[in-house]
Design brief:
Shape: globular
Radius of gyration: 24 Å
CATH topology of the largest domain: Jelly Rolls
Structural class: alpha+beta
Largest sheet: 13 strands, mixed
Distance between the termini: 45 Å
Number of helices: 8
Order of helices and strands: HHHHHHEEEEEEEEEEEEEEHEEHEE
CATH class of the largest domain: Mainly Beta
Length: about 300
């Protein structure tokens, strides 16, 4: 729903001009509750008095001089009152949405404590961001990459990714979020996955994955993800995601153009040795991993 965050959509929402379908879809977005709070707060703010006709003329003059077509289209469609409302809305949104960001580099893991005592372990090449200011009433995290969570009980705890969101009350779970992939494994309690207009509930020992709209569920044993203990494991996943994990772990570039990286892989690789990791993953698939230099590897079919 990224396109609905533009000025035109928000102005229609503020003026109650959305149709039933648009409003229903917007209400199911993870940010809807936050936008409601922002809108309520913006009503408490006062807009300085101004000469409407003079201001309108000034805006029109600046628009005519602007080379930014998108800005011109937006302001010519909106009244001054709506423009002021959107300006306030986005100003307050920035105040609410400014927060803390943590990232990991190649082969790095990072353990974090959130403001409520919840714990997060970030895997390599991953990022989370959240707002400490509003955390007590809005436990919401943005995730890119892979992380393991131990959540303290309390209000809803939401992890947003590009492929969907995961909501819990108090539990332990892991998430992988990479472009067209979302994978969630529940180690304790229950989680709700909301992805691509599907809602899936997972309990202890169950996992869910969606790749390009194709989803699957399976059961597993274990009390935490294997990568916490120096090994990345996979269950029937396209090889390209395993290659990506090796690149993130060892800070290398792997050329897979000469093989079929869509073939499924089930297995694991160690974080202790690149050579052993390459042998473990590719030898059973009859693929040779040619190390060109310290940072470049070419895969070829034997």
């Amino acid at each position: 729903m990224k396109e609905e965050f533009d000025g035109t959509f928000l102005s229609r929402w503020l003026n109650n001009e959305l149709n039933d379908s648009e409003l229903d879809e917007f209400k199911h977005h993870p940010y809807y509750a936050l936008y409601q709070k922002i809108a309520m707060k913006s009503e408490e703010l006062s807009v300085p008095t101004y000469n409407k006709e003079k201001l309108y003329s000034r805006v029109q003059r600046e628009i005519s001089e602007s080379k930014k077509g998108k800005v011109k289209n937006l302001y010519t469609k909106l009244s001054i009152g709506v423009v002021a409302s959107i300006a306030i809305l986005f100003t307050v949104f920035q105040l609410y949405n400014s927060g803390t960001t943590h990232t990991t580099s190649f082969g790095e893991q990072m353990a974090l404590n959130l403001p409520d005592g919840s714990e997060v372990l970030l895997n390599s090449k991953s990022e989370i961001s959240y707002n400490e200011t509003t955390w007590t009433t809005n436990r919401m995290i943005e995730l890119k990459g892979e992380a393991f969570f131990k959540v303290q009980k309390g209000s809803n705890f939401v992890v947003n990714t590009d492929m969907g969101s995961v909501t819990v009350l108090g539990t332990q779970f892991s998430i992988i979020s990479k472009d067209d992939l979302i994978e969630v494994s529940c180690y304790e309690g229950e989680v709700k996955v909301d992805s691509e207009k599907k809602v899936i509930f997972l309990t202890k020992g169950k996992a869910y994955r969606s790749i390009n709209g194709i989803s699957e569920k399976w059961k597993f044993n274990g009390i935490e993800p294997s990568w916490k203990n120096g090994e990345s494991s996979f269950v029937s996943i396209p090889l390209k995601y395993v290659i990506d994990a090796i690149e993130n772990q060892y800070s290398v570039q792997i050329d897979a153009s000469k093989i079929n990286s869509e073939n499924k892989f089930t297995g694991a690789f160690t974080h202790e040795s690149l050579n052993i990791a390459l042998e473990t993953v590719f030898q059973p698939l009859k693929i040779e991993a040619k190390i060109v230099d310290k940072s470049r590897i070419i895969l070829v079919k034997k």
